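Morning. Coffee machine broken again, so started the prediction first thing and wrote up yesterday's gels while waiting. Chain of 580 residues, entered below exactly as on the submission form.
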Amino acid sequence: MEPALAVGISITVIMLSALLFDRLRLPNILGMLVAGILMGPYSPLAHTELFGINFGQIIISEPELVGVFAVMGSALILFGIGLEFSIIRIAQLGMFTFLAAVIKIGVVYVTAYSLLIVFGFDAPSSALVSIALSFSSTPIIIKLLEAGDRIRRPEVPFIISILVIEDLLAVFFLGLVANPAADATEHSFILSLVRVVLTFVFAYVFLSRVISRFLKLVSHSDELLILATVSLVLVIGYISEGIGLSFSVGAFLAGSTIAGSSDSRKIEEKIKPFNSLFSSFFFFSIGLLVNIQAVFSDVPLLLLFIFVGIAVRFVAAGISTYFGGFPGRSACFCAAGFLPLSELSLLIVSQGIVGGMVSSGFLGSFAFAIIVSSFASAWLISRENEIYNFIQGACPQLVIGNLRLLRSTALGMRRAVSETSKYYRVVEKLPSISSHTDQFSTREQMVLTAKNASVLIVVSVVCFLALFFMQSFEWQFLDTFFVFIFGGFLVSSALFLVNAKSAISLLIKMMVRSSSGAKYAALGHFLSCAFFLMFCAFYFWAYLLAPSSLSVILILPSLAFAARSFATAVQLIFSGKMMR
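Came back before lunch.
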């Protein structure tokens, strides 16, 4: 097929699919992906004839014919995202927004990585696919919110702030996975990390000033401004590729360095039509690569992507939103909104295919998962009340109590920081969150933390026994899950100590309130000290039994709690309060 004919067919099909999906009140991006699937070399319509039209004759059998436009599309997508970034805006997002983003990404990454390892994939491919599954699509989510007339809801600033952070992390990760070595080691990873950091620092500190002065020379003419912008995107992109990063990272840095100039808004307005045209080719070209038969030939992998892309990401986004201070119904709305997988994740997976980290079949399954997760988001986003009522009825009360305690603690921390930090008074303007707090009585907190401690000590013992028996030949199959068992032991044990300390402190507080003598408080703190010293001895003994458990690390928090309890008891004795 002639390249001109391929481009003409592509533009026509993209336009028709966008029109159809716009009528269905769905993001145009989904229509472009579906159009690419239908018009690609693996199209299910390849042997179909309708109204005298033989689709086999207009199928684009050579995706590289529109490849140049797809490359420009990916570059302009990253350039547009970069235009939304500036150092000031990133600083204004706030500490708790960053923490919420870390919670969302962390939960998805750990779960996806564990499942992929269980499915038999190696560590590099599992890590790359897991991080790709962690990000959400900014354009798809914004389009869904606009289509449902929910863009003015109070949760939207929080959603956009999280998306901004995720886009930045996705671009940063793109720089790390570009041109990976076949024998990648920790040393080579550190070098890649340093290279990416130095490139970002150089771009923000030096390159941004040079570009700002250059743009002043051409800002008087719209034509010159457009040509200069496209030229900067291409030049910086290829320079970035030349130093070992990806072309997309260079395009992002071009936009990010321009974001601080006075002409950034004007450039964004002028470049927007070009962005829309070429980004359409990018999504269309991704659809061309999807082989439906190959996707459904590996059903377990596809189901894994869909499960993580919908169920796991829903839970992770809901927890992070709840931690951000929103009530349960708002958390359900945000969780549904965060479901669409990111188009930047396609770039990450594509980069992994180029570097030999994953097979080409991953891209088709991933693109299909983006479509499914986006449709799921569009269906769930208006059903926050039904979702909330279902979750509230299905979740155990212990889980609900812990989520309420997490939200109450997070809001308390926000209040404490805002009262002591001048910087946070400025940062707190973004994002705006609900001021409602969950109030717990001392008895409710004590019962909840005591229950947590009971559950966690059981989990900790089970994980330790697995580490202990792993040393014998009969239980060596557990070696495959060593990282997860070891991590589960350390995390559950550390959380047990924290919850036990909280429960004991609340119990002592209740005893003091019910009696007038401080001697009960001193006695309680002495018993608490003995309790944690006992655990110091237990963890040391456990380390002698199974050195691979590294139980000795947990002596440090146990000893700290014991020392604090002892110091409090001594202070009560010598403060004169016991003489009253």
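The mean pLDDT is 75. Going to sketch it on the whiteboard this afternoon.
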